[in-house]
Amino acid sequence: MTGRIQVGGHVSSSGGIFTAVKRAQDIGAEALQIFVSSPQMWRATAHTPDAIAQFREMHAAAGLGQTWVHNIYLANLATETPEQLERSIGSVVNALTVGHAIGASGVVLHTGSHGGNGLAQYLDQVRDALKQILDTTPEITLALETMAGQGGAIGKEFEDLGTLLRAVDSPRLQVCLDTCHTFAAGYELRTPEGVEATMQAFDDAIGVEHLAVVHANDSKTPLGGQRDRHENIGDGHIGTDGFRAICAHPAFAGKAFMLEVPGVATEAHPKGDGPDAENIERLKAIRDAVAVPVA
Ligand SMILES: [Zn+2]
Ligand SMILES: [Zn+2]
Known about the structure:
This protein is of the alpha/beta class.
């Protein structure tokens, strides 16, 4: 795949799902990611047909690129509690259904936690859950996210995700690479050679053609630190050189890069205000300085 990277960000949709479009425009984003339901609650937010229609109209009028939905954080397809599994499946079904209604490209999912026991023990359960989800939802992508490994998260190793993609065997099941998580999991991203080796490992374990979307976050944690702590672009351990190497690698051409960064501290927001215009600008500048690679 060739083409320009879309620089996007995760924005709030509080006050109506369509309000996310203006928030994305206000920070200069070219693509957006949203929650369609409160991320720490099981109960799904109801969206009126009017609010959904308004999202589609505003999105088209704004000329924005891809929309992605992030699933709620409570989901865990490897849970040992049947009730939690059912709720987890329900949350992904809801995200895919609403995502399809608003014209999203897909849903990003933290697959779950094996609690340090390894994926193998839960493979059949997670595979069956993913199949059930895909069988009962409309035709948009479900992207499993690479994880830092905190709490035994599935997806620390690329092999976990490759195993699941092959087990489910659906063209709708793809992968979201989070730069912070992947780096914290131990995959080098600071140099062109490191990015090349990491994407070779991704290709070997999963297949680069299954990379659907990117979470672009710098890392507060050093290489292999296994802790999920996002940093503003250029201010973390991956750094500007790392993001330059990432943007220059052909595997990332044409992908939507969603910022999930804390935001630069200001007087009004001493801890930052999430993906902001400054981080969008930083990533656009890095992208624009790199020649568009030919895959
Ligand atoms: Zn992420
Ligand atoms: Zn994270």
